Amino acid sequence: MAKYWVVGGEYKDTSFNELARGEEQRFGPFDNYDLAKKEWANRTWANVDDAHMRFRIIEEDGRAYWVVGGIYTDTSFTAMANGGAEERYGPFDAYEQAKKAWQEKAWSTVDDCNARYRIERL
């Protein structure tokens, strides 16, 4: 059965690659995603005014990471501009590998407000 964790903390800058001090904070494990998402929301909203704070949900279950997204018709991010399916890149065995691929896709489309990519475990 999958376990979910909320992980994050204060980073040196908004690249979110290096912590400002100490180790990442870990909250959990949570037995389901919805419980982890509530904890993530609480942590995120409690630090909404600090651009260097970031939390994410990670899942322990051995599945692979994928980068998913593309160019959407508008900023609701519900329909693809090309009318097709979302782009998928992966699989990646480690989150850090997927994060690197995500950064490349996100930065290559940074000027397009209809572009969005995310990391998923599938």
From TrEMBL:
InterPro entries: DUF4170. It comes from the Bacteria. This is DUF4170 domain-containing protein. It holds the Pfam family DUF4170.
